[in-house]
Design brief:
GO terms for molecular function: DNA-binding transcription factor activity; transcription cis-regulatory region binding. The chain is about 45% helix and about 20% strand. It is α/β, with parallel strands linked by helices. It has 3 domains: about 80 residues, Winged helix-like DNA-binding domain superfamily/Winged helix DNA-binding domain (Arc Repressor Mutant, subunit A), CATH 1.10.10; about 100 residues, Periplasmic binding protein-like II (D-Maltodextrin-Binding Protein, domain 2), CATH 3.40.190.10; about 100 residues, D-Maltodextrin-Binding Protein, domain 2, CATH 3.40.190.10. Helix 2 crosses helix 3 and helix 6 packs across helix 12. The longest helix is centred in the N-terminal third of the chain and has 24 residues.
Length: about 300
Amino acid sequence: METRLLQTFATLARTGSFTAAATELRLAQSTVTVQIKALEKALGTRLFDRVARGALLTEDGRRLLGTAEEVLEAESRLFAAAAEDGPVTGTVVVGAGETLCSAHLPLIVAALRELHPEVEVQLEPRGTSAALTGLRSGQLDLALLLEERVNHADIAADRISAQPLDLLCAPGHRLADRTHPATWEELAEEDFFLHEQGCSYSDWLAGQLQAVPGAQPRMTRFGSIEAARSCVTAGLGLTVLPHANASHALEEGRLTLVAGPPLPDVPIHLAHHRRRQPTRAARAVMKAVARHFEQG
């Protein structure tokens, strides 16, 4: 039996949808259907009930799912063990939001190449939801998540650092030279240019502004940090960014800090799927990531 059938089984069981499973596995929906039918024929039992809203596990499907996941985990351990000898080589696909991709991952990759030149790192910009999907489907080996906490039974996540946040404006903005901190009520009257929805720290700030009684904060969300930063540099309003993403603009005088309410640090978690044993190359990347933030 091909283990890819078991991967399709596990993915369909988790998503409950042939369409969603096909998207996650990067297969045609008809291929997912064919693979599930082939597995059901091989096992001699029906694994799913096809219903209008998707696919529901049958009693046998629920009973066999755990065993299928154990086989997939054993396969992962087998390949990891086979690669233990010799130099560290291989490709590691890492998912992370733009915040981390732009400020940290290039430095991590450069340091890794000095130690393990035969390890190739592929970076995929992904928000938290897409990164978790990638870990579950096997499209990603590792993910860096900017979240307060990561609580998913199938995802192993270690908090490795935290990023301080900066409230920012252009030097000519009226809040630039404040000698006393602006209040949330005052900030709610300003224009804000923020990273897209799903960005944990931008969503947090938006929530604080929207919680001001009677306020109707003006917020523009961008899919690019650079776009938001450029609007603020032009004097159009305020933004919030991790310090690492603002440090160059602060040093060059294009942005300045705004005195305001205390801002929380944003935790960084390094995550992988619990049922997939990280390869030697993936472990080398994990060490490089941890070392970067420890030094940082």
